[in-house]
Amino acid sequence: MSSPATTETAERGWAPTGRTVATICAVGILVVGQLYVVLPVLGDLAAEWGTSRAAATWTTTAFGLAYGAGFLVTGPLSDRWGRRPVIVGGLAATTLSTLVVIAAPSLSAGLAARVVQGLTASFFAPAAFAYLAERIAPRRRVLALTCLTSSFLGAGVIAQVLAQLVDDAFGWRAVFVAGAVAFAISALVSLVVLEPGADRNASAGSAFTAFAALLRVPRLALLYASCLAILGSFVGIYTGVQLAPPDGVGTSSAALLALRASAIPAMIAIPLLATRLATINPERRLITALTVAGATAAIAAVPLGGIWVATWLFVFVAAIAVAAPAAVQAIATHAGPARGTATALYTFTLFLGASAGPQLTNLVAHHGFPTVSLTIATLALTGATLAFASTKTPTP
Prior knowledge:
- By secondary structure, the chain is mostly helical.
- The chain is built from 19 helices and no strands.
- The chain has helices spanning 4-11, 17-36, 42-49, 53-56, 58-81, 83-102, 107-121, 124-135, 138-170, 172-193, 204-215, 218-243, 253-261, 264-272, 274-277, 282-300, 306-335, 339-364, 369-391.
- Helix 6 runs antiparallel to helix 8.
- This is MFS transporter.
- Residues 20-395 form the Major facilitator superfamily (MFS) profile domain.
């Protein structure tokens, strides 16, 4: 017998919360995980392509830049074509683009393949955010959006752990073969689980005009700038773990796997606190979370061993998991009727930061993990300062 909540949701025409959120979040981990799967295999890629591990980090940047830039196109396309067709079509295309990475004979070819993979993967996030905002019952919407943003962050840890396990057992190419299979399955599951929407007649061109309008609002411009620090600091510190492992961790696969896995509980805990966190003003949450992330990154710079770093990395990841949904909620609050376009621009800045993070780490990694950690702390605190400045700027 259906529960009252289930019946109420069905009567109002909302999509079923459980299977919808579970499906979209699982696919979100897979899609965003492609940004991170190269981190554990940087050494293998460098050896395969005859280059350095530092140069191989550009495979993360290439994907992230294409992924983020793609949102500026795929967000408006989902307004015009509908959410489900864009999600399913993008997943099918990413099945093929993921296989292309395997065939790359050199770094330059690998970078080109990752750009294509990033572009096809970019069809997912804007359409997924919009689908949840439109099809999930209002009283469950904050939870759904928090779960989705947490899945994006969780991908940074889960994808690295799985990629390292697969790489250790079968080699780096198997990481991308497994990803392609998972994308094909995800396309079929999404086709079944997601519901078709009404025909859309929105002009894709009108969304591009809205991008410029949003950035002309000082408060929103500052919030978008602060978003660069969210995934920028997250990807940056994990790149540092790979390029300049902390004292007491070493370079063994087991030690690096344990350090990455130590943050997984934080990704699980934050969505469970979504209802309570939603009672706090989103800008205050964003400022506080980025401040905590900066402080914990600075503390992790103290060379007191692997357990010390793992403990503060756990707190750092939890803070980033709070910051991401707070940022999108703060932006939506001030975006007015342009919320869909505002969300696409949010995801663009989020992953633009993720693309810059590895290169920022590259600049300082030769000085060791403490320098990396302090650099990331500065980035996170700069983001907090920008978010705070946004609260002092009036919204027209």
